[in-house]
Amino acid sequence: MTLWWTFGFNFVLYTAAIQDIPPGVYEAAALDGASPWQRIRHLTVPLLGRTTSLVLILQILAPLKVFDQVYLLLGGGPNQSTRPVIEYIYDTGFTSYRGGYGAAATLVCFVVIVAISAAWYGLRRRRATGTAL
Question: Half-sphere exposure of 95 toward its Cβ, with a 13 Å CA cutoff?
Fold first, then answer.
Protein backbone atom coordinates (compact mmCIF):
# COMPACT_ATOMS: atom_id res chain seq x y z
CA MET A 1 0.00 0.00 0.00
CA THR A 2 2.89 2.36 0.73
CA LEU A 3 4.23 1.78 -2.77
CA TRP A 4 0.97 3.07 -4.27
CA TRP A 5 0.90 5.94 -1.78
CA THR A 6 4.39 7.09 -2.80
CA PHE A 7 4.04 6.30 -6.51
CA GLY A 8 2.64 9.75 -7.36
CA PHE A 9 5.49 11.58 -5.66
CA ASN A 10 8.08 9.36 -7.35
CA PHE A 11 6.36 9.94 -10.68
CA VAL A 12 6.61 13.71 -10.19
CA LEU A 13 10.30 13.38 -9.30
CA TYR A 14 11.05 11.35 -12.43
CA THR A 15 8.97 13.67 -14.62
CA ALA A 16 10.90 16.69 -13.37
CA ALA A 17 14.23 14.90 -13.85
CA ILE A 18 13.39 13.88 -17.43
CA GLN A 19 12.28 17.42 -18.25
CA ASP A 20 15.58 18.70 -16.83
CA ILE A 21 17.63 16.74 -19.38
CA PRO A 22 18.68 19.15 -22.15
CA PRO A 23 17.22 18.23 -25.56
CA GLY A 24 20.57 18.98 -27.19
CA VAL A 25 21.98 15.81 -25.62
CA TYR A 26 19.45 13.69 -27.49
CA GLU A 27 19.98 15.66 -30.70
CA ALA A 28 23.73 15.11 -30.52
CA ALA A 29 23.24 11.40 -29.89
CA ALA A 30 20.82 11.16 -32.84
CA LEU A 31 23.34 12.93 -35.09
CA ASP A 32 26.00 10.45 -33.96
CA GLY A 33 23.70 7.62 -35.09
CA ALA A 34 22.38 6.38 -31.75
CA SER A 35 19.13 4.45 -31.97
CA PRO A 36 16.22 5.34 -29.64
CA TRP A 37 17.05 2.34 -27.44
CA GLN A 38 20.70 3.40 -27.22
CA ARG A 39 19.67 6.93 -26.28
CA ILE A 40 17.51 5.62 -23.46
CA ARG A 41 20.14 3.16 -22.27
CA HIS A 42 23.21 5.38 -22.52
CA LEU A 43 21.72 8.84 -21.87
CA THR A 44 18.40 8.78 -20.05
CA VAL A 45 19.12 6.06 -17.50
CA PRO A 46 22.52 7.43 -16.39
CA LEU A 47 21.21 11.00 -16.27
CA LEU A 48 18.37 9.82 -13.99
CA GLY A 49 20.85 8.23 -11.56
CA ARG A 50 20.59 10.92 -8.90
CA THR A 51 16.80 10.87 -9.02
CA THR A 52 16.81 7.09 -8.83
CA SER A 53 19.08 7.32 -5.80
CA LEU A 54 16.68 9.76 -4.11
CA VAL A 55 13.65 7.60 -4.87
CA LEU A 56 15.46 4.53 -3.58
CA ILE A 57 16.40 6.11 -0.25
CA LEU A 58 12.87 7.46 0.16
CA GLN A 59 11.47 3.97 -0.46
CA ILE A 60 13.92 2.46 2.03
CA LEU A 61 12.93 4.97 4.71
CA ALA A 62 9.17 4.85 4.02
CA PRO A 63 8.51 1.62 5.96
CA LEU A 64 10.27 3.10 8.99
CA LYS A 65 7.82 6.00 9.03
CA VAL A 66 4.58 4.19 8.22
CA PHE A 67 1.93 4.40 10.90
CA ASP A 68 -1.58 5.24 9.78
CA GLN A 69 -1.99 2.54 7.14
CA VAL A 70 -1.00 -0.33 9.43
CA TYR A 71 -2.82 1.14 12.43
CA LEU A 72 -6.09 1.60 10.55
CA LEU A 73 -5.99 -1.64 8.57
CA LEU A 74 -4.54 -4.08 11.08
CA GLY A 75 -4.25 -2.39 14.46
CA GLY A 76 -1.07 -4.33 15.19
CA GLY A 77 -2.32 -7.49 13.55
CA PRO A 78 -2.57 -10.88 15.13
CA ASN A 79 -0.52 -10.92 18.33
CA GLN A 80 1.24 -7.62 17.44
CA SER A 81 3.06 -9.29 14.49
CA THR A 82 2.51 -6.42 12.02
CA ARG A 83 3.17 -3.55 14.38
CA PRO A 84 5.76 -1.09 13.00
CA VAL A 85 8.15 0.90 15.16
CA ILE A 86 6.10 4.10 14.98
CA GLU A 87 2.99 2.30 16.24
CA TYR A 88 5.03 0.82 19.09
CA ILE A 89 6.21 4.33 20.00
CA TYR A 90 2.62 5.61 19.86
CA ASP A 91 1.28 2.79 22.03
CA THR A 92 4.09 3.16 24.55
CA GLY A 93 3.87 6.93 24.83
CA PHE A 94 0.15 7.62 24.54
CA THR A 95 -1.73 4.41 25.33
CA SER A 96 0.49 3.05 28.12
CA TYR A 97 1.28 6.57 29.40
CA ARG A 98 5.03 5.89 29.45
CA GLY A 99 6.13 9.18 27.91
CA GLY A 100 9.82 8.91 28.78
CA TYR A 101 10.13 5.44 27.30
CA GLY A 102 8.24 6.56 24.20
CA ALA A 103 10.55 9.57 23.83
CA ALA A 104 13.61 7.33 24.15
CA ALA A 105 12.22 4.97 21.50
CA THR A 106 11.55 7.97 19.27
CA LEU A 107 15.15 9.10 19.66
CA VAL A 108 16.44 5.64 18.76
CA CYS A 109 14.19 5.58 15.66
CA PHE A 110 15.46 9.04 14.71
CA VAL A 111 19.10 7.94 15.09
CA VAL A 112 18.47 4.88 12.89
CA ILE A 113 16.86 7.01 10.16
CA VAL A 114 19.70 9.56 10.30
CA ALA A 115 22.30 6.76 10.20
CA ILE A 116 20.71 5.19 7.12
CA SER A 117 20.49 8.57 5.42
CA ALA A 118 24.07 9.49 6.30
CA ALA A 119 25.39 6.14 5.08
CA TRP A 120 23.52 6.54 1.82
CA TYR A 121 24.79 10.09 1.42
CA GLY A 122 28.36 8.96 2.13
CA LEU A 123 28.14 6.18 -0.44
CA ARG A 124 26.73 8.54 -3.06
CA ARG A 125 29.39 11.15 -2.32
CA ARG A 126 32.18 8.56 -2.47
CA ARG A 127 30.84 7.29 -5.78
CA ALA A 128 30.62 10.85 -7.16
CA THR A 129 34.25 11.60 -6.25
CA GLY A 130 35.41 8.27 -7.63
CA THR A 131 37.22 7.01 -4.55
CA ALA A 132 37.16 3.28 -3.88
CA LEU A 133 35.32 1.71 -0.97
Answer: 7
